[in-house]
Design goal:
It comes from Corallococcus exercitus. This protein is about 50% helix and about 15% strand. It has 18 helices and 12 strands. The strands form 2 sheets. The chain has a 6-stranded mixed β-sheet with strand order 5-4-3-2-1-12. Strands 6-7-8-9-10-11 form a 6-stranded mixed β-sheet, with helices on one face. Helix 4 (about 75-80) packs across helix 5 (about 85-95) and helix 8 crosses helix 18 (about 510-535). The longest helix has 28 residues, at about 165-190.
Length: about 550
């Protein structure tokens, strides 16, 4: 690849994979097949790299182009939030891209290294492709990723293929797609060298595709059979689309803004109550933008009492986003107000644990006055105690076991699985995606939430400030959808369903550590074989 022609071919491979990723990431049914070939141009380019530096360089380049093409909406959103220059946000974002997408670097290096170790031995031709796929998936599990994205998420557009996520989550789908891409590369390289068609990779690709489709069809049938026709829960969801609360507070005053928020939600909720009998009302994350139950002023205490009185008068339990205070520690919280065993109004809080770095939470080790002065927009919330259920009493005495999730928490399979294993009847997600309104982010966030329902086979009610709110069934299909940047409310009828077990629900994100260990073992093995072949280690 030292020639101009070689570099041009390598850059073309990176560009082709980037374009294919961007199309595959649109989550459109017509583009699902692109997942089988999206990585192939880049993998072929890495195979032609003459050195480890060249291979890793292609990994760095793809990490940057992938980040720009798939998450190009993020720097603008951060600039709006932090009021920093857009060019600075873009610069920092692309600078850290190789860290956020480290799987491209490790896969490139491992691929180059393994090919060097196995040489031209036909019996070991399988090692570099398998090791590349294992290292890719293992690295994604091991390293931090702001958006927890993986190649397998693109299969959400296929109702059948996405059902395989209940085995090993979206990373399991990624592993299968990587192996299919490796088959495509092998066949293409064979044809390019004018050899006969390599039937082995063709057969393997067909087996993987048919197995994934067949498993999905069987599992989808089981999920549909487990769902009953009658609803077990009727939920009223309110999406008021009131955004830029801090700006409004600066212009109108905090009390006036909170007054408007509450009045709007009261009115929209009353309209829902007139349209249908409800078991539960849900308002989104931080809809009550102050502490509840521990007021900071007399006005705050009066508003707290007003909410309690409103719930008691309507006789319908309410869940809403607010802040919870414990001494000087403040938490992003979901507040549950409903009847108690004695008939009085009971209150319970769930505190958000998985906080978005910097904007919501700063680790104590780096939380200094200098950092706060430099980045005044950094968040001050504290982390909650971890995944837990809330036993929420409904009218009539029924106790609903709710697995609460607040915004960012829906991205973490292990966290959600831990809640469901405690016996959850329902996933209940409160979110505020208003900072990303008008971008692909709200739909991508909804897609992540849908994978949590597939993995755990648990229905989910998702209510957001500005969209997208939806009901998600155990097959990951969303309905009762309230679009982005829309003021609306809806009634979500949650059907009763028999509990279906799943490996991903029982073990969480188990595939990542397994692939990482297997990659290390396979790497050590080929290293030893390479040393034996060179005569440096006795056989």
């Amino acid at each position: 690849m030292t020639s101009v022609k070689g570099w041009a071919g390598a850059l073309l491979g990176v560009a082709a994979t980037t374009v294919l990723f961007a199309a595959f990431g649109q989550l459109q049914p017509g583009w699902v097949w692109l997942g089988a070939v999206a990585m192939a141009p880049w993998l072929a380019a890495v195979d032609r790299a003459p050195s480890a530096r060249g291979a890793v360089g292609l990994g760095v380049l793809l990490s940057v182009t992938f980040t720009a093409a798939v998450f190009g909406w993020f720097p603008g959103a951060i600039a709006a939030y932090s009021r920093a220059p857009v060019w600075l946000c873009w610069g920092v974002f692309l600078l850290i891209a190789p860290v956020l997408e480290l799987q491209f670097l490790t896969a490139a290096w491992v691929r180059w290294y393994s090919r060097r170790q196995v040489g031209e031995a036909p019996s070991l031709a399988w090692v570099p492709p398998v090791l590349t796929a294992l290292a890719y998936v293992g690295t994604e599990w091991f390293t931090p990723k702001l958006f927890a994205e993986t190649l397998g998420h693109g299969l959400y557009a296929s109702e059948t293929l996405r059902q395989g996520a209940d085995v090993a989550g979206a990373p399991g789908l990624t592993l299968v797609l990587l192996l299919v891409n490796e088959c495509v590369v092998s066949v293409a390289q064979g044809l390019a060298s004018r050899r006969s068609l390599r039937l082995g990779p063709v057969v393997l690709a067909v087996v993987l595709a048919v197995s994934g489709w067949g498993y999905g069809r069987v599992r989808l049938g089981q999920v549909r059979a487990a769902v009953h026709s009658a609803p077990s829960l009727v939920v009223g969801a309110v999406q008021a689309n009131i955004t830029n609360i801090e700006k409004l507070a600066a212009e109108q005053g905090t009390y006036e803004v909170v007054r408007n928020i509450l009045d709007t939600h009261y009115a929209m909720s009353d309209a829902l109550l007139r349209s249908a009998p409800l078991d539960l009302l849900v308002w989104p994350e931080t809809v009550y933008p102050t502490t509840f139950g521990t007021p900071k002023s007399e006005d705050g205490g009066a508003l707290d009492d007003e909410i309690r009185a409103w719930v008691a008068e309507r006789g319908v339990p309410l869940v809403f986003g607010t802040y919870d205070l414990d001494g000087e520690r403040e938490f992003n919280a979901a507040m549950f107000l409903g009847p108690s065993a004695t008939g009085e109004l009971a209150q319970a809080a769930y505190r958000k644990t998985m906080l978005f770095p910097l904007t919501e939470w700063v680790p104590d080790a780096v939380d200094t006055p200098a950092l706060r002065a430099w980045l005044p927009w950094t968040g001050r919330w504290k982390r909650g105690p971890g995944p837990r259920l809330v036993d929420f009493r409904l009218n009539g005495g029924r106790v609903l076991k709710v697995a609460p999730l607040i915004c960012y928490e829906a991205l973490f399979p292990n966290y959600v699985a831990a809640e469901v294993r405690q016996g959850a009847d329902l996933l209940l997600t409160l979110s505020n995606d208003s900072w990303f309104s008008g971008t692909p982010a709200p739909r991508l966030h909804l897609m992540h939430a849908a994978f949590r329902s597939i993995e755990t086979r648990t229905a989910q009610v998702r209510v957001t400030n500005s969209g997208i709110s939806a009901f998600i069934d155990p097959a990951g299909t969303w309905t009762s959808e309230l679009e982005d940047n829309q003021r609306a409310s809806t009634v979500m009828r949650v059907p009763a369903a028999d509990r279906l077990s799943s490996l991903a629900g029982a073990w969480g994100d188990w595939l990542g550590p397994v692939t990482l260990v297997l990659a290390m073992v396979l790497g050590v093995w080929i290293r030893r074989r390479g040393l034996e072949r060179s005569g440096r280690v006795p056989v």
